[in-house]
Amino acid sequence: MGALEFSLLLVFATFVAGSPLPKATTCGYDACPVPNPDLINVHLFPHTHDDVGWLKTVDQYYYGHKNDIQTAGVQYILDSVVNELPKNPDRRFIYVETAYLRQWWNQQTQESKEKIEALVASGQLEIISGGWSMHDEAVTHYHSIIDQFTWGFKNIDDMFNTTCARPHVGWQIDPFGHARETASIMSQMGFDGLFFARLDEADKINRYKNKELEIVWKASANLGSAASLFTVAFHDYYHAPEGYCFDVICDDDPIIDDVRSPDYNVDARVQDFIDYIERQIQYFKTNNILVPMGQDFSYQQASYWFNNIDRLIKYVNERQSTGSRVNLMYSTPSCYLKALQNADLSWKTKEDDFFPYSSDDYSYWTGYYTSRPTLKYMERKGNNFLQICKQLSVLADLREENWEDLASLREAMGIMQHHDAITGTEKQHVAEDYALRLHRSMEHCHVTTDKALNKIASKGVQENLEFKSCLYSNVSQCDISENSDKFVVTLYNPLAQASTLYVRLPVLDFVYEVRDDTDTLITETQMLRIPTPILTLPGRASIATQELVFRATDIPPLGYKSYHVTKTAAASAPAMPTNDFVINNDVIEVTFNPETHKLESVKDIQKDKTYSLSHDFQYYEGVEGDNSVASARASGAYIFRPVNHQKKPITNNPPATETYKGPLVNEIHQVWNEWVSSVVRIYNGYNDIEIEWTVGPIPIDDDIGKEIVTVYTVGGWETNGKFFTDSNGREILERNRNLRPTWDFDPSFEPVAGNYYPVTTTISLRNFAADSAGEEFAVLTDRAQGGSSIENGTLEVMLHRRLLFDDGKGVYEALNETAFDKGLVARGKQILLFGQTQTSPTSIYLQRLISRENMVLAPWVFLTPTILSSSEWISKYNTLYSGLKKEVPGNVNILTLEPWDGDKILVRVENFMEQNDDPELSQTAYLPIQGLIDRITDNLEIRETVLGANQWLEDSVRLEFKVEGEDGSQQLPRPEPDEFKTNITLNPMQIRTFIVQPPTGGANTIAPSVFSFVSIFALTLWKNLAQY
Ligand SMILES: [Zn+2]
C-alpha cells in the first residue's frame, strides 16, 4: 500500500463532525472496478437528473403528480433503484439532490433505511455533489451556494451513519455555464473533482481536438492550489448515447438475447456500442472513457436500465475474446476520477471561467442572467433574512425545539439555488410555487426572530412582542408604519462591523417624531414624496403617499438598535418639488442636462474632479422564432437574442423630472414613459449615487417582446474593451469584449448576446489612460442581472424582460410574466460609484463594503406597534444590543453563525478582500475567535472543518493531480495548533469554518450589552465612505 492509498483510506475512516462513525472498508475508491490497462475501460455511470422544480413543482416531481406535464416521479426512482441494486453487486448508481433524498428518506421504514445504508456502505449507491439542489452557477451568490451545500451535507450526515455517504466529487451536469467561484468552493469543501456537460460549443470542439476536456481548474487568484479542482467536461451531453436509453420514458430497443427470438438483436446492438466507443476514445487522454447512462428523471423503473446494462456489459465484454478492446463496467464519477489519477499524467490548466455558455452560434444562454427579476430579488432578500434568523437563533440561544422554522428557510433557499429556480427558466406555475415556498419559510423564520428578539429585548418578564417585517416595502407599502400611531423600529445589523443607514418608511401625511435608543429626539428627519408611478403600481394596497426618512447611526454589529416613532397630530406639509437640475451634498454633485433632463456629470467635491456620466434606459426587441434551425432561435427564458443587435430608445422625449431637496437626501424623480421611471438620489455624507428603477408593465400590444437595459456611459475614458464582473459575488474577473481567453471566439453571429456576462453583485469599468491613476466606475446591483460593455466607456445592465416566444430549450413557455392581470412590474436599485484602484481605500474595497451593507447583508427593519411612549419603551426593553464581543477587522465578515447539533455552533469567517484589491486593506486579518460572542467563551472546544462543515479539516486529503510544468500540493491548509487560543489568521479571500462546542450549563442567559467599539467602527467606516 503506497502513501497515497493509505491517505485515501484515511478519508473514509475519519468521522464526520459530531459523533464518530463506523469505519467503512469497501466504499469510495476502494469499491471501484479495476480497469484493465490493456483495454479501453468504459465507465458506465447509471444516473438520474432530478430537477428540484422546472416544468413541475418540487412536490409534483417528487410524488409523480401532473404526469401530463412530464412523466416524472422521484420517489419511484429511489424506490426502484434500491430494489434493483442488490440483484447484482457490480451495479452502481449515483444520487445528487439531497432535497429529494431527504424527502424520500423521511418516508422509509427502519428496515428500508438499513437496506439503503448497506448499499451506501458497499459503494453501490454513491451520493455525489450532495447539495440541497444542483445550484445554478451564474446568478447565485457564494453565501447561498455554501449554505445549500452545508445543509445538504448536514442532512446526509444525519441520514447515514457512515462516512461512505460523504460526497467527494461535484456533479453539475445541467447548469448553463460554469463559474470559477463554484469550482473554488468545491475545492475548499474537499472535493476531488468536478463533472459538467455544458460549455460553449466552440470551446468544446477545441477541447475535443486537443484532448483538453479534462483539466485542472485553477479556481482562485488568491487561494493557490488549495482551490484547484480537477475538472471533467463531458465529451457529449449527460444523456446515454443515442439508442441506449433503457427506460420507460424512452423508445430505444432493449437488448434481446434469446437466440430463438425473431427479435434477437445482441450482435447489432453490441457492435453499434463498440463502434461508438471506438469513435469516442480519440478524444480521451487515457484508456478510460466515461459514458453517462441516464437522463432527466430516468430510472423510475430501474430494472429496465439495469437488466439491459447487465446484458450490454456481458455481451460487449465477451467480444474481448475475439479481439475487441472495449471493456465495459459499472462505475461512478469518483471511480473514473481515480482511474485518471492513477494514470499519473500531467494535465493542462484553466484560470478563467466557462461563461457565457452557447449551444450554437445563435444561442447564447445569457437571457437567464436577468429572467424573472422579482424572483431573483426575493431570493437575495431570502439570504439576507436567513442569515439574521441563524444569527439570532445562536445569540438568543434558542434550542432545538425552535429549529424547524429555521430549517424551513434553509431548505427554501436551498431549492431557490437550483438551476431552474433562481435562473427564471421554470414554468410560471413553478415560479409561483418557489415564491410561495420562500415567502412561507420567511414567515416561519419570523417565529424564530420574534422569539429571539423578545428574549434579548426583555428587561424582565418576557412578553410576546411582534417584530414584523415590511415585506411589501418594495412597493412602498407597510401596514405597521402606515397604520400605527406609535411604533418601534428595530434595526438588526448582521454584519461584523457597525452600520449606518438611512431608514425609509411609508407613512401618512402627518409629522412624525423619531427618538433614538436613548430617547433623544432626532431633529433631522425628512418626508419624501413616493414617486407617482409607484403610487399606482398594480396590486399596491397602501394609502401612504410619503416616506419618512431618518438616519440611523452606529447599528451595532450582530446586534440591533431601536428607534421609537410617534405620529403627531400635525399634518405634514407635502414635500414640494423644484426644477433644479443639480443635486449635491458636501462630497458629491450630480448634474443633469436642463434640456434632455438626463444625467450629465458627477463631481467629486473633495477631489475637485468631475466625471462625465450619462444614463439612459433603452430596450432590445427579442427575436421571434420557431427554433426549427439554429438561425430561427427565439429570445426566451434562457436565450438572449436581440433583433439586429441594436438598442432602441424607450422615449424620444426628455423624462418628466421633479427634484426634491432636504436635509438628508436629495433626489430627482424621472418618469421616462408609461412603463419606465427612476429616482436618482444622494444621501448626505455619501458620495455614491443610488438609482432606483421601476420597469413595467412592459408593453406587448405591438406583439414584440422587449428586454430593458439601463445604460451608463463614462465620457473620455480609455476602457480598451475591458470590463469587470464578479464571480458569484466574490472574486472579480476581467472580461474582454469579443474575446475569450483560451479559444477563438467569433462574435459576428451575436455581438451583443455573446458579450453578456453574469453580474451577481458588481460590474465595473476602469480607465486605462496613462494619466488616469486607476479610475474606476462601478455599478452595484441588488440582484443578479446580465451585463456587458458593448462599446468602450459604456456599461449596460439588463433589468427586465418580457418575451412572447419560447426559446426551444425545454420550458415550452414564453417568458411573459404577469401579475394583477398586467405585465409584471419590477422595481430595484443600483448604486453607482466612482473611485480609483491604486490608493487605499480603493474603489474595490468600497464596492465590497457598500454592496454588503446595502444589498447583500443590509440591516433588517423590524417594526413593532406599541402604545408605550419612547421613555416607557426604554424602561421596559433593551434598545441597544450587540452579540459581538470582540473587535473584528474591517476586511472580515462573519459569514455564518448558526446553531448546529445539540448546543454546538457553526461559525464561518472570511476575509472578503482579494490580494490586489487594496494596498492596505488586502492584508492578512487576525481574528480572536475565543470570546467572539457570548456563547464562544474560553476553554471551549473549537475544531476547524472543511468549507461544507462535514469533515474535520485535518482529515481532509484530496486526490493529487499533476499540472503540466508545475508541481505542488492541492491540499487544504492545516490549522495551526495554538491559533484558536489567540487569533486565527485569514488571508485574502480565505474562508474558515469552525464547529464550536460551548461548555455545558450556564449558556442560557443573555447579558444585554452595548458594543463598546461601535462608535470607533462607525467613525472609521464613515470616514472611508466619505473619502473616496
Ligand atoms: Zn436540470
Top keywords for this entry?
binds zinc ion, disordered N terminus, alpha+beta, nine-stranded antiparallel beta sheet, 23% helix, 1028 residues, 49 strands, globular
Question: How is this fold's topology laid out?
Answer:
Elements: H1 3-13, E1 40-49, H2 58-63, H3 74-84, E2 93-95, H4 98-105, H5 110-121, E3 125-127, H6 142-159, E4 169-172, H7 180-188, E5 193-196, H8 201-210, E6 214-218, E7 228-233, H9 266-280, E8 288-296, H10 302-318, E9 326-330, H11 333-342, E10 346-347, E11 349-350, E12 358-360, E13 363-364, H12 373-395, H13 403-416, H14 428-457, E14 468-469, H15 479-483, E15 486-493, E16 499-507, E17 510-515, E18 525-529, H16 532-535, E19 546-555, E20 559-571, E21 582-584, E22 588-592, E23 599-604, E24 609-621, E25 648-649, E26 656-660, E27 665-671, E28 676-683, E29 689-695, E30 706-714, E31 722-726, E32 732-736, E33 757-759, E34 762-766, E35 775-781, E36 785-788, E37 794-802, E38 818-819, E39 822-823, E40 826-836, H17 843-856, E41 860-865, H18 870-876, E42 880-882, E43 892-899, E44 905-911, E45 925-928, E46 941-945, E47 962-963, E48 983-986, E49 991-997, H19 1014-1027
Parallel strand pairs: 1-8, 1-9, 2-3, 4-5, 5-7, 6-11, 10-47
Antiparallel strand pairs: 6-7, 12-13, 14-41, 15-20, 15-41, 16-19, 17-20, 18-19, 20-42, 21-22, 22-23, 23-24, 24-25, 24-30, 26-27, 27-28, 28-29, 29-40, 30-37, 31-32, 31-34, 33-36, 34-35, 35-40, 36-37, 38-39, 43-44, 44-49, 45-48, 46-49
Helix pairs in contact: 4-6, 6-13, 12-13, 12-14, 13-14
Residues 49, 51, 174, 419-420 line the site of zinc ion (ZN).
